[in-house]
Design goal:
The complex is a heterodimer of chains A (121) and B (108). With 121 residues, chain A is an all-beta fold. Helix content of chain A is 0%, strand content 54%. In chain A, strands 2, 4, 5, 6, 9, 10 and 11 form a 7-stranded mixed β-sheet that branches. Chain A has a 4-stranded antiparallel β-sheet with strand order 1-3-8-7, with no helix packed on it. In chain B, a hairpin with a 3-residue loop joins strand 5 (45-49) and strand 6 (53-54). Chain B is mainly beta. Chain B contains no helices and 11 strands. Chain B is 0% helix and 49% strand. Chain B is globular.
Chain lengths: 121, 108
């Protein structure tokens, strides 16, 4: 079945880095745009970044631009998010999600189960 | 960037009630609007895409309407499993995506 599994979260000190991974299975990963979306504890959903199917186009939310880098390895069916210069406000569950394109834009399905990043000294 | 404003931010209702949640965009987004349901500790699940298309497997008591700047999600007869948080999401721009702030639907 179509599945996304995130890993790489944890507790990290402010200013440090992490690399999050999202392993995809059950579909042709190399054909889909992929996204990262985060959710701070008790808060709403915030889109973080997207990468086109071939990695040629990448876009970021203003809140993470210059600190986060999205990438993918289609040979490994894996999506990544390199998160640098972490701040307390980056504490969140990070979800990866596949983009489904329809007549009007795109929507996310499926989502992974999420990986928690906690930034704390 | 496009701003999405949902109302209300929270709502108390009873099983069997008809419930409407609204989402307003800061500029016209045509029908580039999706709705999600999220339960505690779980990833969101899409309910409605393209403003009014029901995702496969989603009960028909859910419906969406609107275009331009004003959209609604309606649950025709609330069931116990519908108590959750609902988010709208626009995808008008190819380079960014915005979610509404969410509507928490609670049992009265």
């Amino acid at each position: 079945q179509v599945q996304l599994v995130e890993s790489g979260g944890g507790v990290v000190q402010p200013g440090r880095s992490l690399r999050l991974s999202c392993a995809a299975s059950g579909f042709t990963f190399s054909s889909y745009t992929m996204h990262w979306v985060r959710q701070a504890p008790g808060k709403g959903l915030e889109w973080v970044a997207l990468i086109s199917y071939d990695g040629s186009n990448k876009y970021y939310a203003d809140s993470v631009k210059g600190r986060f880098t999205i990438s993918r390895d289609n040979s490994k069916n894996t999506l990544y998010l390199q998160v640098n210069s972490l701040r307390a406000e980056d504490t969140a569950v990070y979800y990866c999600a596949r983009s489904t394109v329809t007549t009007y834009g795109n929507w996310f399905d499926p989502w992974g189960q999420g990986t928690l990043v906690t930034v704390s000294s | 960037d496009i701003q999405m404003t949902q109302s209300p931010s929270s709502l108390s209702a009873s099983v069997g009630d008809r419930v409407t949640i609204t989402c307003r965009a800061s500029q016209s987004i045509s029908s580039y609007l999706n709705w999600y349901q999220q339960k505690p500790g779980k990833a969101p699940k899409v309910l409605i895409y393209d403003a009014s298309s029901l995702q496969s497997g989603v009960p028909s008591r859910f419906s969406g309407s609107g275009s331009g700047t004003d959209f609604t999600l309606t649950i025709s007869s609330l069931q116990p499993e519908d108590f959750a948080t609902y988010y709208c999401q626009e995808s008008y721009s190819t380079s960014s995506i915005t979610f509404g702030q969410g509507t928490r639907l609670e049992i009265k």
